[in-house]
Design goal:
This protein is mainly β. The chain has two domains: about 90 residues, RimM (Elongation Factor Tu (Ef-tu), domain 3, Beta Barrel), CATH 2.40.30.60; about 60 residues, SH3 type barrels, CATH 2.30.30.240. It contains one helix and twelve strands. The strands form two sheets. Strands 1-2-5-4-3-6 form a six-stranded antiparallel β-barrel. A six-stranded mixed β-sheet has the order 10-9-8-7-12-11, with no helix packed on it.
């Protein structure tokens, strides 16, 4: 029987892709070549690990896959699963020596923006469907910053810094 203790948090579904039910799976801490052939995953739906079979899986870039599940055949149906965490059995991965099996936790990382400078420290991550957010606290304010590829420019895991390019006006909201 599988539970979170013998599964690896591979990543989460961040958006739909195409019109036939494909999704973009953003992966944590691994590169696609570290993952063995997988034909099924466990999706965390309302706290329950539900198995789903994969009909197609292809590399998108160094940190994401395009994934298509059996029985999910439309963009609307795929959109229902955006924000869900995806787990695989630990034996399905080949971890490099410098990566442990825990998914990266960005709590405590500093946010440094190219225009605004040091914004503050990440206090938590809000996993809101279709709009995950960093909850960031500075000395005087709290900010909610979208976790989005257009905002996050680079991550330095050694120094625990995330470099961003925050759009004008976002911090005033």
């Amino acid at each position: 029987m599988f539970n979170k203790e013998n599964l690896y948090l591979l990543g989460s579904l961040i958006k739909t892709h195409g019109v036939h039910g494909e999704c973009i799976l953003k992966i944590n801490a691994l590169k696609p070549e570290n993952i063995h052939e997988i034909d099924s995953v466990f999706m965390n739906i309302d706290g329950l690990l539900v198995p789903y079979f994969i009909s197609q899986l292809s590399d998108k870039d160094q940190s994401s896959f395009i994934i298509k599940f059996d029985d999910i055949d439309s963009k609307d149906k795929a959109a229902e699963f955006i924000g869900c965490d995806i787990y695989i059995p630990s034996e399905s991965i080949n971890l490099p020596d410098n990566v442990n099996s825990a998914a990266p936790d960005f709590t405590g990382y500093e946010i440094i923006d190219k225009k605004y400078g040091n914004i503050g420290r990440i206090m938590s991550i809000l996993n809101i469907q279709d709009n995950p957010l960093f909850k960031v606290k500075s000395a005087d304010y709290e900010y909610l910053i979208p976790i989005h590829k257009d905002i996050i420019q680079e991550t330095d895991e050694d120094k625990k810094i995330i470099f961003t390019n925050i759009p004008d006006g976002l911090l005033e909201i």
